[in-house]
Amino acid sequence: MRAGAALLACCWAVTALAGDVRAPRAFLSPELRTLQDDPARHPGWLWVEQGEALWRAAPPDSGKQACAGCHGDITGMSGVAARYPAVAADGALLNLELRIERCRTEQQGASAYGYESEALLSLTAAIAARSRGQPVNVRVDGPAAAKLADGRLLYSLRQGQLNLSCQQCHEENVGKRLRGDVISHGLGTGYPAYRLEWNGVGSLHRRLRACSLGVRAVQAPFGSPDYLALELFLADKARGLAVEAPGIRR
Amino acid sequence: MTDITARVTMPTSARKGEIIEIKVLARHTMDRAVDAPGLKPSPRRIIHSFRASYAGEEIFRMALSSGIASNPFISFTTVATETGVIAFEWLEDGGAVYSRAATLVVT
Amino acid sequence: MPDKAPTRRMVAAGLAVMPFAAQAQPIASAAADVNRSRSSESFADAERALLAGRTPIAAGITLDVPKLSENGNSVDVLIRVDSAMTREDHVRAIHILSEQNPYPRVATFNLTARAGRAEVATRIRLATTQNIVVLAETSRGAVHRAEQEVIVILGACVDGG
């Protein structure tokens, strides 16, 4: 705890309104906010571009259909990202990445792209971009309720050598500065996002791994049940806020 | 050589004499040379040049270095003179050339 | 930067891949050895070589860079040079120089009168807090110069991945 306090000691209060949950874009510098709104300059759109090309292309020599073959034009994916993560018929909690991977393996009979592969990031960005501006609206009833509870628990769990929970930073220190970053509510609405630090697009789970490392905690694997439960909890917290993907982040 | 992912943003039409803005993005890691002791050396691999021509005549070029950010963004202007093809080329270390083209209709 | 012509459709990507009529010839990039991470040329040498004995005019350039950069991986640079951009008198070349980067010559833009406006933008890498210098050469042989300090903040989460 002492280490955690020291870590936050460099912070000073910026505008912090208690209670409400503000969109990630509200915490961006004016420059990055403008960039996020400008597809002519936003490098994340290169991934959207590539994802749209993948959407139209059939897997080579498989005799199987392209995504477009079953789903039609990608415009039909409007609103889908706002409903994810979601529990599938077999009870598995799937985020958009894993939903795409299922179609890839089960519908196209191809090998999975792999989490954090450029192809999967591109397709995810292209589909998520179709929900840009639409309010997050995930289901948390039925089989999702237990997953949400898991996520809530993880969110408040102190972790790592710094012994900090997500909540301590993303609720109790919102608006404060941490080494050049302004701490936001820590929502996933901008992901996949182009992060300047990464020089490219990365998934929400990559961002979560960075936060885990930041408190010197064990990083869970990409697509792990823990990060999926957290993702659902974050989406529930972001309910009603607009999808920002592809976001631009520092 | 494979292709490059690129985006060009410009108007599809303009009035004669109007100045139009052209913005281009290309997906490239812009790898710097590695020559530090103990590390496996590798040469620079960047987009070292970009150029644009309009109806066959060069209107703009840029020499890039490893000091240009990944996924290079370039913005420049040109006067709409005639209906024609604006062609773009990105030249990579190692000799690959990637190109795109768009038509500007001038009224 | 808001679009100046919002009423017209814009093309964005998905463009035809067009072979060039003439074969592309590489553009000589300044003093770059592709095997070396650091230039043998210093910032001062690079600026001196570009000035070629001319005394720069400390006016006529608007250099728009953030005073505080959030991440040195990507720093927006917008350059505008006052010029009528006529055939007789236009900006021919705009150079971006960095005082502290491993390579002082960051970029060179070559323009013609057909640009209509001497205005270019790109994104650069900055190794550390430093001055950015811009030189603009006109077709009449004059050189304009602008300089601006950029403070570079480092990232909070270094995730190594």
Most residues in contact: chain pair: B-C, 61 and 57 residues
Helix content range of chain A:
25-40%
Mean pLDDT of chain B: 95
Spatial ordering of strands, largest sheet of chain A: 6-5-7
Mean pLDDT of chain A: 92
Structure write-up:
The complex is a heterotrimer of chains A (250), B (107) and C (161). With 250 residues, chain A is mostly helical. Helix content of chain A is 39%, strand content 7%. Chain A has a single domain (23-250), classed as Cytochrome Bc1 Complex, Chain D, domain 2 (Orthogonal Bundle). In chain A, the strands form 3 sheets. Chain A has a 3-stranded mixed sheet. A two-stranded antiparallel ribbon of chain A has the order 1-2. In chain A, strands 3-4 form a two-stranded antiparallel sheet. In chain A, a hairpin with a 2-residue loop joins β3 and β4 (181-182). In chain A, α7 crosses α10 (225-237). Chain B is mostly beta strands. Chain B has a single domain, classed as Immunoglobulins (Immunoglobulin-like, Sandwich). Chain B has strands at residues 6-11, 13-14, 19-26, 47-54, 57-64, 73-79, 84-92, 97-106. Chain B is elongated, with a radius of gyration of 16 Å. By secondary structure, chain C is mainly beta. Chain C has a domain at 43-154: Sandwich (Immunoglobulin-like), CATH 2.60.40.2470. Helices cover 6% and strands 35% of the residues of chain C. The longest helix of chain C has 9 residues, at 43-51. The chains are: A mainly alpha (250), B mainly beta (107), C mainly beta (161). The interface between B and C is large, with 61 and 57 residues.
Attribute tags:
heterotrimer; A: 250 residues; mainly alpha; Cytochrome Bc1 Complex, Chain D, domain 2; three-stranded mixed β-sheet; two-stranded antiparallel ribbon; 7 strands; 39% helix; disordered N terminus; C: 161 residues; mainly beta; Immunoglobulin-like; five-stranded mixed β-sheet; three-stranded antiparallel β-sheet; globular; disordered C terminus
